[in-house]
Every structure is written in structure tokens, then in C-alpha cells.
Design a protein that fits this description.
Elements: E1 2-6, E2 16-20, E3 29-39, H1 43-46, E4 55-57, E5 62-66, E6 74-75, E7 81-86, E8 91-96, E9 107-108
Parallel strand pairs: 6-9
Antiparallel strand pairs: 1-2, 3-5, 3-8, 4-5, 7-8
């Protein structure tokens, strides 16, 4: 259904992205990524490490580490997928926002909402 391959969009050390191995129709569930939530007050220890780049807000009182393929989806302001926090299952569920063809990279908007074009938090303060 999905696989990790080299992405031309990533400028990270590993240049990875998540790609479709089959066609997905708009609305199809692509991936359920488990999370490990922890209380916000514990985040001060993690933000001193590389792991801080892989954490996200998880409700009002928690932060979470996203497992599975979850942290390998790249960002786009014109994504073909979106995600929902599933607190009952402790997963982040990724869905096709548009039809996605086999071979396409699956992209999400890191801001959470598909049409949110705010600057990304890790780019704030950087000159363009």
C-alpha cells in the first residue's frame, strides 16, 4: 500500500518520503500510525534531543511521538493527503485528500489543516 523511498522534496539527511504502491481514491485510509503520548511537562527533556523534531501536540495536555510511517510523510501546501488524531485508538490516521496514483509521493500539510498556509514552525525566523 505504501513504502519509503528517496524523495526529491526532502532536504533532510536521509531524503525519505512515503509513496503509494497502489492507487488510493479520495477518502481512502492510507495508514494508521500509532503514537506514544506523554504529559507536556516531560517535553523539556526531549526537546534537548533530535527526537524533538518528531514530536507533536497531542491534545491539550500531551505531546506524542508518532511511530510507523507517520513521521516520514513530507510537507506540502498542496497536499494529497490529510490526517486526523484518533485519541480512542492512540493513532494518527492518514487519508487520501485527493485521488493518489501508485508511485506518487504522499504529502500532508504539517500545519494540520489542508488549506493552512501559515509558515511552518521550524522555518519561523529563517530568512528566505
Amino acid at each position: 500500500m505504501i513504502e519509503v523511498r528517496t524523495s526529491t522534496l526532502s532536504d533532510g539527511e536521509l531524503n525519505r518520503g512515503v509513496f503509494a504502491t497502489r492507487d488510493f481514491a479520495k477518502g481512502d485510509l492510507i495508514h494508521e500510525a500509532p503514537v506514544i503520548p506523554y504529559p507536556n511537562e516531560q517535553h523539556e527533556h526531549i526537546e534537548k534531543t533530535l527526537l524533538a523534531d518528531y514530536m507533536f501536540e497531542y491534545g491539550a495536555n500531551h505531546t506524542a511521538l508518532l511511530l510507523g510511517y507517520g513521521m516520514l510523510f513530507n510537507h506540502s501546501y498542496t497536499p494529497n493527503a490529510h490526517y486526523d488524531l484518533n485519541f480512542d485508538n492512540h493513532t494518527v490516521d492518514f487519508y487520501a485528500y485527493t485521488d493518489i496514483a501508485a508511485g506518487d509521493e504522499i504529502l500532508i500539510n504539517y500545519n494540520g489543516e489542508v488549506e493552512n498556509d501559515d509558515p511552518l514552525w521550524f522555518n519561523e525566523g529563517k530568512e528566505e
